[in-house]
Structure formats: structure tokens, C-alpha cells
Amino acid sequence: MPPARPVFLVSDHTGITAEIVGKSLLSQFPDVEFTYTSLPFVDSPEKAAQAAARVREVWAAGGLKPLVFSTLTDARSRDLLQSSGALVLDIYGQFAGALERELGRAATPLRGRLHGIEDHTGYHARIDALNYTLATDDGLNTDKYALADLILLGVSRSGKTPAALYLALQYGLRVANYPLTAETFAQPGLPACLRPYKARLRGLTLAPERLAQIRSERRPNSHYASLETCREELAKAMALMRAEAIPVIDTTRRSVEEIAALLNLSRDTARVTGPNQTA
Q: What is the mean pLDDT of residues 35-46?
């Protein structure tokens, strides 16, 4: 197998954008192995020169030309990074010029504008949503459900908590989650605490084999993690959600980002796609 191609993700702030763009593009080359190095907060020409030197060192040591994804906004720093000789994909420079020509005005570079806290309203909304989501995790504080944007349902380890937290941080949504357990299935219909908020309910499901694998990592060789138990619980959960016309998303092969995006989309499209759709 050929050696992994070195990839640098360079930013003058957190590096989130460089990582998202870089990894998204390179995911289109599944037959190539990559090793990633993140260089956040390269916020001065001196640090840019150091980053370029590090890229050259890795190139010299391994013999493979590195790939560099950069979101540096300072022109001098961008030039210094280009001096590394690597393939530098300058995300800011690639698009800023075209936008300046189209909009008829120069860009005003400012580090961290997207992921900073200059938007105080949006920032505080995300923090408030996160606090709400933590307070209502796994069926806690059901008296607060009137404040929820969404309420996620599913059996244990179906992905409710990660999806809820991501929706809070990324979209600023207040997302509660409620576990479907043996006690839930023993009673007809939805639990009383959920009935007033049926329009906000969204179900998560997954393949029994995947659920058994996830549960085995937590409690190996247990009844809780057995394939038979997983099949039984998932079947009962799906029967309940179908009977109550709750939209359901299959999480088996989806990342938390994909699950959250589908849940966010479902807030507006559930009436169009129909309540029993399994995405």
C-alpha cells in the first residue's frame, strides 16, 4: 500500500471551515489514504512562515508533496504559505476575488468572523439551546417540553443524544430526547408527557446488527446488547412510531452531521414527505 498523502488544514482561527472543506473534497478519493495535520490560529505572517516551513519539512521527510487547505485571510500570510511549494488550496483567495468583482466592493478580512462570537444573538441562542438540551437529555425534565423545537424518540443508543447536542450547537435548536423502553411499550400509545407535542416528535432507528454492535461496546455479552433484544426493541419502537405517524430517520449509515441536517430539514418538510417516511 502506498504511503498516506500528508494534508495540512491551515487557518487563522479555529480551522473548522478548512477542515470541513478539505475533508469533504478528499472524501471523493476513497482509494487514497491521507494523514491530517491541523494548524489553527496561524494569525500572523511569522506563524504563516512557520507553517510553510513545517509543510516543507514533512515533504522532505516523506517524499510526498503535501496538500494544504487554507482559510487564511491576511494576504501576506497567504503568500508565505504559498512559498512552501506544496499544493495550496487557498479557499479564501479562490472565492474572495470573484465575489469582489460581482459585488463591486472589496472584502474586509476579519479572522474568525464565521465561528466567532461577533453575532452575540446567535451565539447566546446556541448556548441557551445547549443548556436546554442537556437539561432534557434521556427523558429528564419532561415538564420543559413546551419549550422544545424537537423531541427525539428512540431506543437506547440509537443516537438521540449526539444528534440533539449537534442540533443545539449548530442550529441553535432546543432539542429534548426521550428513550423508548420496556415501560413505554407496556402502555398503549405515547406516554402522556409526549402527547401534547406530537408535531415536534421525530424518531430515530437503525439496523439491529448495528445497535447490537454499539451496545456491545458499552456492555459486552449482556442481554441488553444481544441481537435478539435489539431486534425486539427496534420492532416495538417502529410499530409505535408508525402507529402515531411520527417521522423516522434511519441512522445506521449516517454521521451525526447528516442525521442533524435531516432532522432540521424535517421541521419544514414533514407535511410534504408524509409522517411515515423513513429517511
A: 95
Query: Cα–Cα distance between 73 and 12 in angstroms, integer?
Result: 7
Phi/psi at 189 (nearest 5 deg)?
A: 70, -165
Residue that finishes a domain, picked among 38, 71, 103: 103
In a domain, 175, yes or no: yes
Give the closest residue to 59 by CA, choosing from 86, 83, 37. 86
> Where would I find the H helices in the chain?
16-26, 45-62, 75-82, 91-103, 120-135, 160-171, 182-186, 208-218, 227-243, 256-273
Q: Work out the pLDDT band at 275, boundaries 50, 70, 90.
A: very low
* Domain assignment present for 108: no
**pLDDT tops 60 at residue 205:** yes
* CA–CA separation, 130 and 111 (whole Å): 25
Mean per-residue pLDDT of the chain: 90
pLDDT at 166 over 70: yes
Confidence of residue 270 (pLDDT cuts 50, 70, 90): very low
Counted domains in the chain: 2
Q: What is the distance between the alpha carbons of residues 166 and 171, in angstroms, rounded to a whole number?
A: 8
Residue type, 127: I
Please report the pLDDT score of residue 146 as a whole number: 97
Do 67 and 184 belong together in one domain? no
Q: What is the pTM of this model?
A: 0.68
Q: Which residue has the cell 491521507?
A: 34
> CA-CA distance, 214 to 251, in Å (whole number)?
12
Same domain, 51 and 136: no
Task: Return d(Cα 86, Cα 193) in angstroms, integer.
Answer: 58
- For the cut 90, the answer to whether the pLDDT of residue 24 exceeds it is no
Range of the domain at 191: 120-273
